[in-house]
UniProtKB/TrEMBL annotation:
One of its GO terms (molecular function) is RNA-DNA hybrid ribonuclease activity. InterPro entries: RNase_H-like_dom_plant, RNase_H-like_EbsB-rel, RNaseH-like_sf, RNaseH_domain, RNaseH_sf. It comes from Sesamum latifolium. SUPFAM superfamilies: Ribonuclease H-like (SSF53098). This is RNase H type-1 domain-containing protein. Residues 52-173 form the RNase H type-1 domain. It comes from the Eukaryota. Gene3D superfamilies: Ribonuclease H-like superfamily/Ribonuclease H. It holds the Pfam family RVT_3.
Length: 199
């Protein structure tokens, strides 16, 4: 390798990382005072999987819930998951458990790149940080980082709840301890289609 040239095997990974960086840096562009860009779900690029997650706590405080929906470059739901954990914790812990489920689910999809989106700003900030988090959620974050390193390109991004509708819906309606699959349930499928139609 001479100068800044890349070896051919490294080119796909470099391209994925460059595109990922470009998208991340251009999400918050302002187009004028008092003008707000509508926030909608956007499809990822080819060979990339975009996964939205949401965590929740249940009334008795003895369970946490994790809800995940994964979509490909066509906007189609390629996998979804709903799980309950018999453990104590606050909303941030629930969100972190959901984020870890994102990685487990996505590793089964065989894609080289992943975009992970959640509506818990504090957790996303910790996942984006380079230093270790010393709070109670720290060990889960380390686990997420280790799993995410299996992807050529990965990105943790904050998204408002208005763009996290499908995962949030799953978080509210899930009843069993574990369920999931490739095809979304009818109610979820309608939300996925609504997201795509708004693009």
């Amino acid at each position: 390798m001479q100068g800044n040239c890349l070896d051919p095997p490294h080119v796909p990974c470099f391209i994925a990382q460059f595109v990922n960086s470009f998208h991340s840096q251009n999400l918050g562009i302002s187009i004028g005072v008092g003008t707000e860009i509508p926030l909608r779900w956007k499809v990822p690029w080819p060979d990339c999987i975009k996964v939205n997650f949401d965590g929740t706590t249940f009334p008795k405080g003895l369970e946490l819930g994790a809800r995940v929906v994964a979509r490909d470059a066509s906007g189609a739901c390629v996998a979804w998951l709903s799980r309950r954990f018999n453990m104590l914790g606050d909303v941030e812990i629930a969100e972190a458990m959901a984020a870890r489920e994102v990685i487990h689910l996505s590793l089964q999809r065989g894609r080289s790149s992943i975009i992970i989106k959640g509506d818990c700003a504090t957790l996303i900030h910790k996942l984006q940080a380079s230093e270790q988090d010393l709070s109670v959620v720290g060990p889960v974050i380390i686990s997420i980082w280790e799993l995410a390193s299996c992807f050529c390109s990965r990105s943790f991004q904050f998204v408002k709840q208005s763009c996290n509708v499908v995962a949030h819906y799953l978080a509210q309606v899930a009843r069993s301890s574990a369920e999931g699959g490739h095809d979304a349930p009818p109610a979820v499928a309608s939300l996925v289609n609504a997201d795509i139609s708004r693009e």
